[in-house]
Amino acid sequence: MQEISSRLSGPEILASTRRRIRAGMLAVAVTFGGGFGWMALAPLNAAAVAPGVIGADDRNKVIQHLEGGVVSQIAVHEGESVSAGQLLLRLDPTKAKAQSLQLQDELDELTAMAARLEAERDSRPTVVFPADLAARRQSEPEVERILRGQEILFAARGAALANERDVLVARIGEFTEEIGGLEAGRAAAEGQIALLDDEIQSVRRMVEANQQPKPRLLALQRDRARLAGERGNTIAQIARARQNIGESRLRISQLDADRLNQVAGDLRDTEARIYDTAQRLQAARDVLARTEIRAPIDGTVVRLNTHTVGGVVQPGEALLELVPAAGRLLIDAHLKPTDIAAVKPGQTAEIRLDAYSQRRMPMIFGTVVEVSADALRDRGDTPPYYLLRVAVDRQSLARLPEVHLAPGMPAEVMVVTGTRTLLDYVLMPIATSLRHALIEQ
Question: How far apart are CA 93 and CA 290, in angstroms?
Fold first, then answer.
């Protein structure tokens, strides 16, 4: 070094030092100038930040029970994913099953009665029961009892009707025979009257010729009057017998007509009762089916309110809610009132999930779908906020199979509101402070 320094004169050393200083100053100027230029020109996304939680579209399925009852099984737990038709809860079916069985027996009885009445109406020799009842006859003793009872009643009513008809037919036969005897008696009386007329005529001539006493003629006339009276009585008896025959035949016709009218009326009443009972049975079966509470859609169980087997569920009580699996995932975020002017529906939002590591967690995107019209407060002592609803982009979520979003999970929403430079971020607080300072009294 001493040799080099000895070779250089003083002015040369000074010039070399100045060059080094200028180079250093130039490097510093370039560095700070470039950085300042980047701060002034490079655009950065401006965003409104709002904390929130994962929810679902506001169409959660509230699972209720119409009649209520006693819980016999809880088949799911909070947060469990379920498929449509999967059992959620089961209520005690004892009462509903008893009601359903009672109405089924009543319907079977009425159906068998209708079949018997149809057989009577159509004058069939036997009762033809519906196929489903006939098929259940072998395996269900109660159905066998019902059908057997109707068959016995059919035979008894048929026998009673036949007996009434036989009695009337027998009476017709008796009256017919009686008419035959009366006709024979009338014919005999008419023959005797004809003979008496001849004899009276002869005796009258003899009395006129004083050959016979007059009492003889009077006696013959009395006999003829008696026979004429008997003949008239016989004719009247024949007329009454024929009237009885007509009445008996009319009675047979009336018997059949009355039976048919009665059967038709009973059949109408029975069919009306069948319809009413079938409706009540369907309602009872619906009640029985509702003792098994099943998921109407694919989804996730939330707000499970029933936790005790043997507990009582009130009619209309909310048992749990299902978050639809196919519905939109929404984030309900609280936006500061100072950011409301820059946030509108349709803007893009970046979503960070607090439950996952941010270093390994790629960004999830969403879209602002709703901004509340007015500021809200949860309580009087909490700061106001605007409710911001952001729909999660499922395509960006599909690229992250390890991420599972669940209702209630915390998230941070950053709504992109425009672009600003780093210099804007640095100078804005200073400018704001200066503006406030200049207007203070």
Answer: 9
